[in-house]
Amino acid sequence: MTLLIVFFALLALILLVTWGKCNAFLAFLVVSIATGLCLGIPADKITRSVQKGIGDTLGSLVVIIMLGAMLGKLVAASGAAKRITDVLMKAFGEKNIQWALMVTGFIVGIPLFYNVGFVLMVPLIFSVVYQYKLPAVYIGLPMLASLSVTHGFLPPHPSPSALVGQFNANMGLTLLYGFVIAIPTIIVAGPVFARTLKNINSVPLKTFQPPVLNENEMPGSANSFLSSLLPVLLLATTALLPLLPAMQRGFWPALLAFVGDPITVMLLSVIVATFTLGIANGKSMKDVMDIYGDAVKDVAMIVLIVAGAGVLKQVLVDSGVSNAIAAQLQNWPIPPLVLGWLIAAVLRVCIGSATVAGLTTAGIVAPTITQLNVEPNLMVLSIGAGSLMFSHVNDAGFWLYKEYFNLSIKDTLRSWSLMETIVAVMGLLGVLLLNLVV
């Protein structure tokens, strides 16, 4: 009965947005409240779930999305995005630009949280799209596949890092195995799969459309790359410096933790870009602030839609759906690595959050890991792969992609959701193959 309620809730959400033409945020609120009541959450506690879902989702995300949109808008308006695109095109050629973006996404995705990487890399994708008149989904999906794989497979991202602790796995080995599995997974889910998506019509957000500028109006190549990728450089630096013995004493740990926080990183990056791409490039402070104001307006509805997805996720978590589903699957007579993947995959499809799916699965599987005779590092990767399975309307990432690329739900399912499914299946296959040799 629980699964049936979840199914009809998701169906109602899809119908409200597509057939009913309802605003996605309002649809999320209506469906989430109705679903909570049907799943037995007391009426007086429903609004708490709504508030917690919005707070937990936007609390860590709204500042990042807004600052990322500001930085992305300035990168486009200043000509830095066009300059970066020109350099990439000269280095890789138009035929290989997908691979250039895919490699960039993989490098950027290792230190960056997925949502941060998404809002930073989207302007670069759109710059290529607008300048060379290429299909947006075809060009952009390989980079997003890279970001997704690093988010689900590789420490120091939250879910795999937490899973390493839960299973007493080795962080270094998990990272090494993760790299071995991640590379073929990204290739298949990225450039190979994207070949089937060339006919998807996408008109990305105009906020990231670069203006027509003369050569002398654009910032230099070094300035463009450094200003645009400063968040990546800051996060990578603050992640590596704590490994030095001298940085593990005194005030350094607290300072690095503060500077390395994604919100601090994004704020510092916007401040630096204000001068390097704005003031130093001939713009007044008022011009730069107008650009930032337009950027916030452009992504305001995206923020609300992401909050709506957080509400539905919280209602499903508070109702105990995740534990009920996991309990039903736990006793299935299938190999442990496949079982871990399957539980995480089912939870992901039903709840929408990869992190919640991964951690809930770990809570079910971890107590029996010593009895299952299974390599704990591979179990971390198996659950990580399963937690990425078939992202759809109850996942904030689904709506970020849909709204930024300005796609229909049908085309979002056809591209984004299938890409995530390929990532999950390829991840499992990689784990099973590695299990034969380690």
Could you explain how this protein is built, in words?
76% of the residues lie in helices and 0% in strands. The longest helix has 34 residues, at 285-318. The mean pLDDT is 86. The protein starts with a helix and ends with a helix. It has a domain at 62-157 and 171-192 and 208-301. It is mainly α and 438 residues long. 53% of the residues are buried.
Feature tags:
438 residues, 21 helices, globular, mainly alpha, 76% helix
- Uncertain segments are none
In angstroms, what is the radius of gyration? 22 Å
How many strands?
Answer: 0
Secondary structure: helix percent: over 70%
Mean pLDDT: 86
SSE string, helices as H and strands as E: HHHHHHHHHHHHHHHHHHHHH
Percent of sequence in beta strands = under 5%
- So what's the overall shape? globular
Number of DSSP helices? 21
Q: Distance between termini? A: 41 Å
Q: Main β-sheet, in a few words?
A: none
Protein structure class: mainly alpha
What's the structural blueprint in terms of helices and strands?
Elements: H1 2-18, H2 24-38, H3 43-59, H4 62-78, H5 80-92, H6 97-109, H7 114-132, H8 136-153, H9 158-166, H10 171-194, H11 221-240, H12 252-259, H13 262-278, H14 285-318, H15 321-330, H16 336-351, H17 354-365, H18 369-372, H19 376-386, H20 396-405, H21 409-435
In summary, what is this structure?
By secondary structure, the chain is mainly α. It has 21 helices and no strands.
